[in-house]
Design goal:
The chain is an alpha+beta fold and 171 residues long. It folds into two domains: 76 residues, Beta-grasp domain (Ubiquitin-like (UB roll), Roll); 76 residues, Orthogonal Bundle (DNA polymerase, domain 1), CATH 1.10.150.120. The protein has five helices and five strands. The protein binds FE2/S2 (inorganic) cluster (2 copies). The site of one FE2/S2 (inorganic) cluster (FES) has 10 residues, from loops. One FE2/S2 (inorganic) cluster binds next to loops.
């Protein structure tokens, strides 16, 4: 067994794990973070996607020991103060899910796509999500949701920057 210290969804954990334990197993079975799901055994589906130090990874493809000393965010840590993340909100509003099994991974990957490219084209969104499979084939609404989230996030960041400029002018 190996001891790991990891922060998951803002909470610090220190646990003994077997060296072969996958990050997704640790999250689900060790911490009860069952919002992160397993959809394949071939590293193909992306259902298990989480953020490791802010970058998306397939957590079935990472060992728990590799997360030692790092920060993991799962779908369960994305909302802040009870308010859905703009990508979660957009998936809800655009009905970007059918069975919902791929949704946690899709949302985590979509966040990563928008972090790297806040104004992606439809093609760029499709390419950014190509490692995530939706078995219900609901890609059309998923892409629409990511476009809507991009718009919402860019208007909230321009609002924040105009508020801070206004504060700078008035101070
Ligand atoms: Fe990780 Fe399918 S469960 S890629
Ligand atoms: Fe069913 Fe994507 S909504 S797998």
């Amino acid at each position: 067994m190996t001891r790991i210290n990891v922060t998951v969804d803002g909470v610090s954990y220190s646990d003994e794990v077997e060296p072969r334990t996958l990050l997704v197993q640790y999250l689900r079975e060790g911490l009860g973070k069952t919002g992160t799901v397993v959809g394949c055994d071939t590293s193909n589906c992306g259902a298990c996607t989480v953020h490791l130090d802010g970058t998306s990874v397939k957590s079935c493809n990472v060992l728990a020991v590799q997360a030692d000393g790092h920060e993991v965010t799962t779908i369960e840590g994305l909302a802040t103060d009870g308010e859905l993340h703009p990508v979660q909100q957009a998936f809800h509003e655009c009905h970007a899910l059918q069975c919902g099994y791929c949704t946690p991974g899709m949302i985590m990957q979509a966040c990563d796509v928008l972090k790297n490219n806040p104004d992606p084209s439809e093609q760029e969104i499709r390419e950014g999500l190509e490692g995530n499979l939706c078995r219900c084939t609901g890609y059309h609404n998923i892409v629409k949701a990511v476009q809507q989230a991009a718009g919402a996030m860019s208007s909230s960041s321009s609002l924040a920057s105009s508020q801070s400029s206004a504060q700078a002018v008035s101070s």
